[in-house]
Fold this sequence. Notes:
It contains 4 helices and 12 strands. It is α+β, with helices and mostly antiparallel strands.
Amino acid sequence: xxxxxxxxxxxxxxxxxxxxxxxxxxxxxxxxxxxxxxxxxxxxxxxxxxxxxxxxxxxxxxxxxxxxxxxxxxxxxxxxxxxxxxxxxxxxxxxxxxxxxxxxxxxxxxxxxxxxxxxxxxxxxxxxxxxxxxxxxxxxxxxxxxxxxxxxxxxxxxxxxxxxxxxxxxxxxxxxxxxxxxxxxxxxxxxxxxxxxxxxxxxxxxxxxxxxxxxxxx
Length: 218
């Protein structure tokens, strides 16, 4: 964990800047890079600027070929020399246009995995009781998200106002999905959302702020 210390009346407090994750991974996540065959072994050049090449043993390459985008996990080493790693996923040729999104995700450190606790909270969540909420389910709301949208959570409804004092006027309702009922302060979902701040949209994919059980379903 990377934190910033500040001194107050009751002593020092730490504000989290970034979760670095466990040893063996870069910044708590896998390293993405371009594989290059080098004799009987291989080398991976990370897409993140400023990172050194990582050596890949011949038994740890998963059959990767030169020019492929691969995900690797760093190996612990007490020896001097370049860092060592092993390929854990092959993502296709780096010159494929779809790889631009994946590279951007890694370069900017966008979290793509949710904690088991957050996934469990999302998957076990159920629709709330109506309670004091206003029931708008009888309105023929129309979604404004296209069929190929990553999520469908916005809708509108309108009708002419029958009030004679508002002749020519309209009544409009804009409906926006709100997950506040499910994301309670201090919960695992709340911590995961705080880590991200927002969903990230790319031409070919979305990295959601919340697990799909919430963001794309409930």
